[in-house]
Specification:
This protein has about 90 residues and is an alpha+beta fold. It has a single domain, classed as Alpha-Beta Plaits (2-Layer Sandwich), CATH 3.30.70. It is built from 2 helices and 5 strands, in the order βαββαββ. It has a 5-stranded mixed beta sheet, covered by helices on one side. β2 and β3 form a beta hairpin. α1 packs antiparallel against α2.
Length: about 90
């Protein structure tokens, strides 16, 4: 995948204890993305994800649509990346 990007997203709000990670895992199965989702000690949820830019955009939009009532803020960074993840998992 020549045009692979890596995105790091930090979701803030009421995102722990509401099925956020499980919903993200289920949504990841619908897209060609790899990576992981993980609860953070500060109450946020970290998402590290790789794929082509169009798949990443659609995947993140689907998370925002599904979990919109819980997300207050998202911090996001994007970079070119070597493929380092295999599959998608909850950590």
């Amino acid at each position: 995948m020549a045009d692979t990007r890596r995105e790091t997203l930090q979701f803030y709000g009421r995102v722990q204890g509401v099925g956020f990670r499980y919903a993200t895992l289920q949504l990841a199965k619908e897209f060609e993305v790899t990576g992981f989702v993980k609860n953070q000690p500060d109450g946020s949820v970290l998402l590290e994800v790789q794929g082509n830019p169009m798949e990443l955009r659609r995947f993140v939009e689907s998370i925002e649509d599904r979990m919109h009532g819980y997300i207050r803020r998202i911090e996001r960074s994007t970079s070119a990346s070597e493929i380092t993840f295999q599959g998608f998992e909850i950590r």
